[in-house]
Amino acid sequence: MLLVDTSVWIDFLAPRSTRAVGHFRAQLDAREPFALMELIYLEVLQGIREPATARKVASYLRGQLLLYPRHGLRTYEAAADLYRRCRAAGVTVRSTIDCLVAQIAIEYGATLLHSDRDYERIAQVESKLKLAP
Fold this sequence. Notes:
The protein is mainly alpha-helical and 133 residues long. The protein has helices at 6-13, 19-29, 38-46, 51-62, 73-88, 96-108, 117-125; strands at residues 2-4, 35-36, 65-66, 111-113, 130-131. 59% of the residues lie in helices and 9% in strands. The strands form two sheets. Strands 1-4-5 form a three-stranded parallel beta sheet, with helices on both faces. It has a two-stranded parallel ribbon with strand order 2-3.
């Protein structure tokens, strides 16, 4: 399963040509399923200026697989622990949300598609985080 991060959606909708967008386009062309999270849904929609475009994108995204914290508050505790482990290892993660996205990807065994260097840093600390090539 592929979890598509907000960073990819921003480039995809811009549109910008990046390695991650190319990977995502190939996924879409092959009609392979992908997933997102509620926070990713929120971040994508808040970045769209035109209301009509936001409605179209929202309608499309509502039809996709949504991943939720598998273990309730324990998922958030694990994300906080991941953040602390990164800090202890000298890795600065700029967004707490990135730790939550990474933790949910880990819980589902999902591969995370991203264009955000924070995930590369998190993966240095947490070997269970699978990143798309």
